[in-house]
Write a structure and sequence with these properties.
Layout (H helix, E strand, L loop, with lengths): L2 E8 L2 E8 L3 E3 L3 E4 L12 E4 L5 E5 L2 E5 L4 E3 L14 E6 L5 E5 L2 E5 L5 E3 L10 E7 L5 E7 L6 E6 L5 E3 L11 E4 L6 E4 L3 E5 L4 E5 L10 E7 L2 E6 L4 E5 L4 E8 L6 E6 L5 E5 L3 E6 L4 E5 L14 E6 L5 E5 L2 E5 L22 E6 L5 E6 L4 E5 L4 E2 L3 E4 L9 E5 L4 E6 L1
Parallel strand pairs: 2-24, 3-28, 36-38
Antiparallel strand pairs: 1-2, 4-31, 5-6, 6-7, 7-8, 9-10, 10-11, 11-12, 13-14, 14-15, 15-16, 17-18, 18-19, 19-20, 21-22, 22-23, 23-24, 25-26, 26-27, 27-28, 29-30, 30-31, 32-33, 33-34, 34-35, 37-38
């Protein structure tokens, strides 16, 4: 990996730009959903999970839910479906069993009774495009970026308890609000748009933060926390490291071979972030060393990342990763990264049965596959097939033939038919 350093001087301090050469590529096994699964052909824009665990997908053709196998367009009873070209721009679930839907035709709330209502109806921002949604760390407020053609965007604060709202705009507000972040320490808001802005709640003042590119449109896409600093992603200029206390831009991380239009940052752990990239798809970013790695796209491999344009990343309660892509939606799990396939021995006729369950012994030395025709296959941790394994079983039968396996020590496995 070749690294290159450049420096630019911004009003009294030296600003380093960390560049690197050819990006590394990761292998990954993805489950890819497209229009054949019922998803809107343009793919997914945004993903969210509600309080009961249902996955919701915002698309260019309205709101979809996922039942585990296919996607279903939400029937909003002539409320959201009045407009044929409804685009879902953002989704967010609050702590009161509600789903907030930001669209190109207003802000909608889906309550616990599954009813939809437009919150800002009758206001100057009713029916306008919602650019972004953000819920405060204390779960008490919803912040809404509202885009108004040829005018400065509007920032709306919604009280999630009584649903009262307040328009926060002050002179000097950004023309566009593409992302919102709130500091836990002082409660101030950080707004990303053509530049970075800080909104001070106590003073009711907005401040534009001078960037290393003061005359350029940074097109800030996302903001997230890293080691008491902010990582700020932009369109075309990579990722910045920013100190919110001193309000200094400390580093810029760019790749010389592309991958610099980062739409979304999501923490993976203390040292790594997942990134959705407009020209590289889905990857990982390591802030401490300034390195990007992207998952490999292969047109002939159906388990690779399907297209190279990522939009949003969502991690569900089971730590599965959903990536909203142009023309697709991808599902990924870290445990799937190094999957290897092993052929079932010929003694099992797979045309007449299928795998029903799998279990491992407590010491991890013995594994067993159970099949719907009640056959078993045993293998060790190196996937060598084993014979002469003793079985202990009960007499419970099942019409479906599904098998629940409980593996134990001493090469014995007990099983029951569900």
């Amino acid at each position: 990996m070749n690294y290159f350093f450049k420096y630019i001087i911004v009003i009294g301090y030296i600003f380093p730009i960390l560049s690197f050469g050819q990006a590394e590529y990761l292998e990954g096994n993805f489950l890819n959903y497209q229009s054949t699964h019922g998803l809107e052909p343009e793919g997914a824009y945004v993903i969210e999970q509600d309080s009961i665990g249902k996955i919701w997908i915002g698309t260019a053709d309205g709101l979809y839910s996922f039942d585990g196998e296919k996607f279903n367009r939400e029937d909003q009873g002539n409320i959201l479906t009045q407009n044929k070209f409804l685009i879902i721009e953002d989704l967010i679930a609050d702590g009161q069993h509600r789903l907030w839907v930001g669209s190109n035709h207003g802000l909608w709330m889906r309550d616990s009774s599954l009813n939809y209502s437009e919150l800002l109806e009758g206001t100057p921002v009713a029916g306008k495009k919602i650019s972004t949604l953000f819920i405060s760390p204390d779960k008490e407020y919803l912040y809404v970026g509202v885009s108004i053609a040829k005018k400065t965007d509007v920032l709306v604060k919604v009280n999630l308890e009584n649903l009262q709202f307040e328009i926060l705009n002050q002179p000097g507000f950004p023309k566009t609000i593409s992302t919102i972040w709130q500091s836990k320490s002082d409660g101030n808001l950080w707004l990303g748009g053509e530049q970075l802005f800080q909104f001070d709640f106590q003073k009711k003042q907005i401040q534009k933060i001078l960037s290393p590119f003061p005359e350029a449109n940074l097109k800030i896409e996302d903001i997230d926390l890293f080691n008491n600093h902010y990582l700020i992603s932009s369109w075309g200029k990579g990722i910045f490291l920013f100190d919110p206390i001193s309000k200094k831009w400390e580093k810029q991380f760019i790749a010389i071979d592309g991958g610099n239009s980062i739409r979304n940052l999501v923490p993976k752990n203390d040292t790594t972030f997942y990134v959705a990239c407009a020209d590289k798809g889905f990857g990982e970013f390591y802030p401490k060393i300034g390195k990007y790695s992207f998952y490999k796209h292969n047109t002939i491999d159906p388990t690779s990342i399907p297209v190279r344009s990522g939009r949003k990343i969502f991690i569900d309660r089971d730590q599965n990763i959903w990536i909203a892509m142009d023309r697709a939606l991808s599902f990924f799990n870290q445990r799937m990264r190094s999957v290897k396939f092993h052929s079932i021995p010929e003694e099992i006729d797979m045309s007449k049965t299928k795998v029903a369950d799998m279990a491992s012994s407590l010491d991890g030395e013995i594994n067993v596959l159970g099949f719907t025709n009640h056959d078993f296959l045993f293998f060790d941790k190196n996937f060598n097939w084993l014979k002469n394994i003793k079985l202990k079983k009960d007499n419970t039968l099942s019409q479906k033939g599904a098998i629940n396996l409980i593996a134990g020590n001493n090469n014995t496995v007990s099983y029951t038919h569900l």
